[in-house]
Design goal:
72% of the residues lie in helices and 0% in strands. By secondary structure, the chain is mainly alpha-helical. Helix 1 crosses helix 8, helix 5 packs parallel to helix 10 and helix 5 packs antiparallel against helix 12. About 3% of the residues have low confidence.
Length: 300
């Protein structure tokens, strides 16, 4: 067995987690009684589960792995992008959602077909699928890197390919077996796992760094000679320079447009599933209830 750095306890926890997912998938599959139940969970998903799933869906492997790396190498300006997310969510809640209910559709593609005909629907669907191939492929590759390290202890091309195929197969089988109910509650479980992991990492770091809280903050504020504070969240600038990826300008305008596409249309969304389809179809019975879901998601 390759040396992956995993102890028997680590493997036990990993297998227990997968067994938990398998059991929940089987249980949810048994509860399916119709096509509507498979695709929409008959509209019986609670708001709290929908809100957690909404948040989990907006976080990919790229965010979970790349976010800490961005903060380690630079600062916390990545967090300012949430301003654009909140702006987009409010626009979707108060302007987009009523239109979906008014036309009795569950996706932007249905709305495009009602307003502009089937050709607009097909064109938007094609654009989405092309974008998804590239975006989802990149995220799947990022997720396969730690999977390859866990399974094989290296990053050989063949092992990465096996990791990609394994993750793809598991995701497809689980979704097909359990339907949308299993997807949403899996998101809830995964949210508990990664939030718990983040909190555990913070606790471990605090115990191992030989400084108190004040000393840690001081060190991060003054990392070295002529180096900016690593605690910087908001940065002024136009955002047109590659070195200024996260500024107030890009947060308000760039990321609001990006997230407006993600939450409102699904054509350029930053996750593997359609937000509006999920919540309009599965949980929200009115625009007010949908707003509760996405407004809950917008609160950090």
């Amino acid at each position: 067995m390759p040396d992956t750095g995993f102890s028997p306890t680590d493997w036990g926890v990993l297998f227990a987690y997968f067994i938990l997912l398998a059991v929940t998938g089987i249980l949810f599959a048994k509860r399916q009684s119709s096509t509507d139940d498979y695709f929409r969970a008959s509209g019986k998903i609670p708001v709290w589960a929908a809100a957690i799933s909404f948040m989990a869906t907006s976080l990919s492997a790229a965010t979970f792995i790349g976010g800490p790396q961005q903060a380690y190498r630079g600062d916390l300006t990545y967090l300012s992008s949430n301003i654009g997310s909140i702006i987009a969510i409010l626009i979707v809640a108060f302007f987009f959602v009523p239109a979906f209910y008014r036309y009795k559709v569950t996706t932007v593609y249905g709305l495009l077909e009602k307003r502009f005909g089937p050709h607009a629907n097909m064109a938007a669907s094609a654009a989405f699928m092309i974008g998804r191939v590239f975006a989802s492929g990149a995220r799947l590759y990022i997720a396969a890197l730690p999977a390859s390290l866990i399974l094989f202890g290296d990053l050989e091309v063949g092992h990465q390919l096996i990791s990609v195929l394994t993750l793809t197969l598991v995701g497809i089988v689980y979704t097909l077996a359990g339907g949308i109910r299993s997807v949403i509650f899996t998101d809830v479980i995964q949210t508990i796992v990664f939030v718990g992991a983040a909190l555990a990492a913070v606790i471990v770091l605090l115990n191992r760094i030989p400084l108190d809280g004040v000393g840690i903050i001081s060190a991060l504020q003054n990392p070295g000679i002529d180096q900016a504070s690593k605690l910087t969240i908001f940065k002024l600038g136009s955002g047109f320079s590659p070195k200024d990826s996260y500024t107030i300008f890009t947060a308000i305008f760039g990321f609001s447009l990006l997230n407006l596409g993600a939450y409102g249309t699904g054509v350029c969304q930053a996750s593997c599933r359609l937000f509006l389809k999920r919540f309009l179809s599965f949980t929200a019975k009115s625009p007010h209830e949908f707003r509760r879901v996405i407004e809950a998601h917008s609160h950090p």
